[in-house]
User: Fold this.
Amino acid sequence: MAVRLRRTLGVRDLVLFYLAAIVTLRYVPLTAAVGPSAVTIWLLAFGLFFVPLGLAVAELSSRHPAEGGIYVWSREAFGDFHGFLTGWTYWTCNIVYIPSLLLYAASNAAVVFPQTAHLATNKTCLALFSLVGLGLAVGLNLRGLRVAQRLHNASGSLGTWLPALILIGLGIVAWLTFGSATSFAPSGLVPKVGGLNEVLFWASIAYAVTGLESASTMGEEVHEPRRTVPRALLVAGAMIALIYLAGTLALLVALPAAEISGLTGLTDAVGVMATKLGGPRLGAGLGAVAALGVCLGNLGGVSAWLAVSARLPFVVGLDRYLPTAFTRLHPRFGTPTVAILTMGGLSAVLVYLAELGGNRAEQAYAVLNSLSVLSFFIPYLYLFPALIVL
Assistant:
């Protein structure tokens, strides 16, 4: 592939990129609300999906490290049409996923200060913040991964680890002070199965650990991708599993499941736990810090998925299945300018449409999140068979 992409990503950058792209801390209270069986659900998700996905991506990235990742793997295994279908569904999924991240970041930004907390359900304010955040991500990505990775790195460290460590620390203090609020008897560790709600819930948890293939779409922008990608997958995979599992355990130790079910996100969980331990002022303070961290984490996720998504039309354009305009690189920064601007523009349109629709901001977020879940698993129907074929 005769392109002038710049190799800028090393192991550390990829580890933080995976954390920014994959870890979504809103799933911790969602999972903990089902009770101690949440621990079993996470272990099953890691063992049956996350680890096999990581092994598959490590192998495919080593054999086919070219730009395009999952699109290239499907194309090489099953032909051009199936490669295009994989790339198309992966790309369109992120068009709706990016606005959902923006809206979630905006709602957490609003609750950092008590004076602005009421704006967390104001669709107009959330849309304006989302568009500003999207503009930031687009601007950074236009200047290249060397610049955009600063946001990814900040998101993967402060935006992910800071709120996670606050949550885990509060759980440890609560356990030492009051003991565990949840019984972890063997009978309680057995998940409920069979109903539609359980099926949808399990799908959401599987969705929470997707994305290990993301960085491989930028294979020709990674230093020594055959070695770097597998190493980064190993380190980041261990961190992701630790954050999700330890965060859920901390929440269950600090609060009974009945109280967790009423929480709307990690910020609320931290606030309730800190208030229980140290009073309203501590709860408000740590809640604000957690909200700021979650906001930064989601903005980093926006930038990461924008970078991933822009590489797909770029590579498909090189194969002549999309207009060649998508293959244009910035003369100075060497970035796929048209592909990045197209992704940013479509995401901005969906943010605007989400602001118009529904009676509440939560409805817009729920619709966008559901659309992304529905379409994101289609490329995986190709990824695992591609491993066998190739």
